[in-house]
Amino acid sequence: MDIHLSAVSHSYGNTEILRDISLDIPSGQIVCIVGPSGCGKSTLLRLIGGLERPTSGEILQSSAPPPNCLNPLTYVFQDFALLPWRSVAGNISLVLEDHGIKGAEARKIIDDVLARTKLSDFANALPKQLSGGMKQRVAIARALAVNPAVMLMDEPLSALDSQTRELLIDDLVSLWSRQPFTAVYVTHNLAEAVRLGHSIVVLSRRPGRIREIVTLDKPLTERAYGDTDLDQQQRHLWNLMRDEARAADAELINV
Amino acid sequence: MSELSPQKSVRKVEFRGGGFAPRSYRWVGSIVFIVLIALAEIGTQTGFITSLTLPKPSDVFQTFRELFESGLLFKHMVPSLTRLAVGATIGAIVGIGVGVLIGLFSLVRAGLVPLVAAIFPIPKIALLPLFVIWFGIDEGSKYALIAFGTFTPTVVATYGAVDNVDRTLIRMGQSFGLSWLSIVRKIVLPGAMPGILSGLRISLAIAIILLVAAEMLGAQYGIGAYILEAGALYDLERLFAGVVILSLLGVVVNSVITAVERHLLGWRV
Q1: Which residues of A have a CB under 8 Å from any CB of B?
Q2: Cα separation of A68 and A114, whole Å?
Q3: Using CA atoms, how far apart are residues B135 and B122, in angstroms rounded to an integer?
Q4: Does B175 sit within 8 Å of A126, measured CB to CB?
Q5: Which of A142, A203, B60, B172 could bridge across to A208 with cysteines, CB 3.0–4.6 Å?
Q6: What is the pLDDT along chain A (255 residues), one digit of tens a residue?
Q7: Average pLDDT over every residue of B158-169
């Protein structure tokens, strides 16, 4: 399933957040969105997922989602958003129950996604017992359980320490290479963007406009921590963003 | 370390952390009770405390035993516990229901929050004559009084608890396409449970106070009637026996809620 944004603009009251965003999200690719803080990255993601309505412009999905897809546009949140009173398996079954999937059928899906995220031994653990990295893997497993057409990831690794982040990047790459998924990946971390993005959309500071779209041709599996060509790309991105980031940092927040 | 010259004074970094962390001392609570009762016993035995000031704890215990053996204890306890159970259950259920509705619907909130604020400070016992007319002189008015008294604090605690449910969890539910009912049932209610239970702790204590008040104003049997009668006769032993029953009732209610919390809220960090 592809997603097309045509001339999307959004404002909250008098504050213009996004201006004239036109973007294609092709099937089977990870599109990273980077930009200085407050540039409307997360807002853009909420618009794509239908949690908010754009002030103007259209967001279109082309072609039907895959037949066994329960929730075409599925989020992975920065703060995991796990129900603390449900076990790992219970958190995943939560999103299946409403589709009438229960019992053995649910068990099968849960076992499958837990195996894919290497969590099989923790099905009965409560979120409070898990480390941050494991919590986010549970959230990813939950997203995989509904077989999404597009994963909308809102800074999924930002709440984690840098070592865990590195491990989870590897996990995401291996998940993707086994079964390519479409994802919009919002981050402020350029290193994540160059490791995971097939293309990287650089937004300007508020009101967010597309400054540049960088396409990376190197396959995800061949990218590694500290690759020189990736470093170069990252430096290029940073050069694009530095002045904007400085200006954004000096802005007063009037919300 | 080799650079440390002997003339420089070397001292240990002083520890200044610690404290401010609750620790559990299991028996201290009981010891405080025992020491206080023992002091009262010694004081009354030696005559340091006159029998008009405080009855002997041993006499109170004796009275309590007689009450138990004569079967009068149950004659007083059964109606009291029934009133408490019926009244508090009605009040808590309606309170939680209305509280959840206030938390979920802005229109209900706009309409009912001022009303709840208006009836919260009314001493409910002042309304007993009204309840007698509305619900009859018998049990009905007592149930109504206890229910009404439990209702208001439960409502306030419940809508506060619903307001405090993590919005990101609700947004998560919406993003996975959960139905409205599922979000309420599986996310809002469990998320509000800690606040609801701590509200019930207060509401049930208020229910016990109102139970006694209602029984004092008109009941043949019941702990309140028993205490009132003892007070009128200045029978301090019986008065204290009644007070002890109430305290025990409070302790039991509290530990029931603690047990329910431990069972339902084991997920809390």
Answers
A1: 49, 51, 70-71, 73-75, 77, 79, 81, 83-86, 94-95, 97-98, 126-128, 142, 146
A2: 18
A3: 19
A4: no
A5: A203
A6: 788 888 889 888 888 888 888 988 988 899 999 888 778 888 888 899 888 888 988 888 887 777 788 888 899 998 889 999 999 999 999 999 988 888 888 999 999 999 988 899 999 999 999 988 899 999 999 998 988 888 999 988 888 888 888 888 888 898 888 888 889 999 988 888 888 889 999 888 878 888 888 888 888 888 888 788 888 888 888 888 887 778 777 777 655
A7: 93
Q: Identify the CATH assignment for A2-65+149-249 out of 3.40.50.2300, 3.40.50.300, 3.40.50.720, 3.40.50.620.
A: 3.40.50.300
- Residue with structure tokens 């306890």? B77
Q: Does B202 touch chain A (CB under 8 A)?
A: no
Q: Could you give the CA distance from residue A141 to residue A173 in angstroms, rounded to a whole number?
A: 14
Which residues of chain A does B174 touch, with a Cβ-Cβ cutoff of 8 Å? 51
Q: Report whether the peptide linkage leading into residue B57 is cis, meaning its omega lies within 30 degrees of zero.
A: no
- Judging contacts by C-beta atoms under 8 Å, the chain B residues touching residue A86 are 267
Residue pairs spanning A and B at CB distance below 8 A: 55
For chain A, first and last CA: distance in Å? 35
Evaluate if residue B3 carries a pLDDT over 60.
no
Residues of B in contact with A146 (CB under 8 A): 176
Mutate to test the interface with A, among B164, B167, B175, B262 (most CBs of A within 10 A): B175
B172 touches chain A (CB under 8 A): yes
Residues of chain A with C-beta less than 8 angstroms from the C-beta of B191: 85
Under 8 Å CB-to-CB from B55, ≥6 apart: which residues? B44, B236, B237, B239, B240
Domain ranges of chain A: 2-65+149-249, 84-148
Q: How many CB atoms lie within 10 A of CB A190?
A: 22
CA B265 – CA A126 distance, rounded (Å): 12
To which residue do tokens 């996310």 refer?
B187
The token pair at A224 is 């590694």
* CB < 8 Å to A97, chain B: 182, 186
Domains defined along chain B, listed by start: 57-264 (1.10.3720.10)
